[in-house]
Design goal:
Blueprint: E1 2-6, E2 16-22, E3 29-30, E4 35-40, E5 45-49, E6 54-59, E7 66-68, E8 72-78
Antiparallel strand pairs: 1-8, 2-4, 2-7, 3-6, 4-5, 6-8
């Protein structure tokens, strides 16, 4: 199963965020709850966590790029049970 990582809405009036730094790259293993990307919003910087355990299969938004709230930043392919 593939799960998208969406850009969340951090607060009222914020409609976009900028990817500052990916903490995991394509093909890297991540655990659910582990920070995977740093996002800069108008008033704060926030780390987004992996929604599932698995491998980052694709990154859509590169570092330095601004995206709208709800945009798909990346995809994570669910890990096989032996990783879980």
């Amino acid at each position: 199963m593939t799960t998208p990582v969406h850009l969340p809405k951090p607060g009222m009036g914020t409609e976009e965020g900028t990817v500052l730094r990916w903490l995991r790259g394509e093909g890297e293993f991540v655990r659910q709850g582990e920070p995977i990307v740093e996002i800069e919003f108008a008033k704060a910087t926030q780390e987004l966590e992996a929604p599932i355990t698995g491998r980052v299969s694709r990154i859509f938004i590169a570092e330095g790029v601004t995206a709208g709230v709800g945009s798909v930043l990346a995809l994570i392919e669910e890990a096989a049970k032996e990783h879980g």
